[in-house]
């Protein structure tokens, strides 16, 4: 990028970076004069799967992308702390000063939501249907293919909350990625992950910090 201007007040990403390392370098352009600056990431559900098809063939590209997704999806740990841990740095929590956006979210039980999502993927597999992330969201919200929709319980969550739950299940291993390659493009599909069978146990629970109703994982803010 080659930008070394000390008084940059904003660095705004219109989508997430491909890795935490990339984001660290890009956001580091802000506040080099030691005055307050804002680093903002706008991102959406579809960005994850679009970028994944670009990096899947790179060495550790998908793993690095998931680290960036986890950073954006996080709503319970200071973002500066996450960045420090990623680079094996010692972090003093007193230095945080609540300068990021992760202080106002609460933990909720998403176990029933997870079971609904896993059931959709399970039913699709039994019918030899491939499920894209978009089709999964649409079906769960009652707008997908009729043959899938009539067999599952639709969600009352907002779309952004539903997308957040699905991303969380992917990051935690209840869902996994499956790629289909053609000479012209790469497709991303959802399949059951290694932890999906745990949801059949009545005592198994999943919690996540969720955005308030009507909001979702679309903006990440860090104030420097």
Summed over residues and divided by their number, the pLDDT gives a mean of 85
Poorly predicted residue ranges: 214-218, 220-224
Q: Find the count of extended strands (DSSP E, 2+ residues).
A: 7
Q: Name the strands of the widest sheet in spatial order.
A: 1-2-7
Based on secondary structure, the structural category is: alpha+beta
* CATH-assigned fold name of the largest domain: Rossmann fold
Beginning-to-end CA distance, first to last residue:
20 Å
Which CATH-level-2 architecture of the largest domain? 3-Layer(aba) Sandwich
Shape, per Cα inertia axes: globular
Please, how many helices?
A: 8
CATH superfamily of the largest domain: P-loop containing nucleotide triphosphate hydrolases
CATH class of the largest domain: Alpha Beta
The total number of structural domains is: 2
Helix content: 25-40%
Enzyme class: isomerase
Organism: Xiphophorus couchianus
Keywords: DNA-binding, Isomerase
GO molecular function: 3'-5' DNA helicase activity; DNA binding; four-way junction helicase activity
Kindly list the characteristics that best describe this protein:
224 residues; alpha+beta; Rossmann fold; Arc Repressor Mutant, subunit A; 8 helices; globular; RQC_domain; DNA binding; 3'-5' DNA helicase activity; P-loop_NTPase; WH-like_DNA-bd_sf
């Amino acid at each position: 990028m080659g930008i070394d201007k000390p008084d940059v007040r904003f660095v705004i990403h219109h989508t997430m970076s491909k890795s935490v390392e990339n984001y660290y370098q890009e956001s580091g352009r802000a506040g080099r004069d030691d005055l307050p600056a804002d680093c903002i990431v706008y991102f959406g559900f579809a960005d994850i799967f679009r970028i994944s098809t670009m990096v899947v063939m790179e060495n550790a590209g998908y793993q690095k992308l998931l680290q960036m997704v986890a950073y954006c999806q996080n709503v319970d740990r200071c973002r500066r702390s996450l960045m420090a841990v990623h680079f094996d740095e010692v972090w003093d929590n007193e230095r945080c000063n609540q300068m990021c956006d992760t202080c106002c979210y609460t933990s909720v039980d998403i176990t029933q939501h997870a079971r609904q999502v896993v059931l959709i993927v399970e039913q699709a597999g039994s019918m030899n249907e491939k499920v894209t992330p978009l089709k999964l969201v649409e079906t769960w919200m009652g707008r997908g293919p009729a043959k899938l929709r009539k067999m599952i319980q639709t969600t009352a969550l907002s779309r952004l909350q539903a997308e957040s739950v699905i991303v969380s299940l992917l990051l935690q291993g209840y869902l996994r990625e499956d790629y289909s390659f053609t000479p012209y493009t790469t497709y991303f599909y959802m399949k059951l992950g290694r932890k999906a069978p745990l949801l059949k146990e009545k005592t198994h629970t999943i919690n996540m910090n969720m955005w308030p109703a009507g909001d979702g994982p679309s903006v990440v803010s860090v104030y420097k």
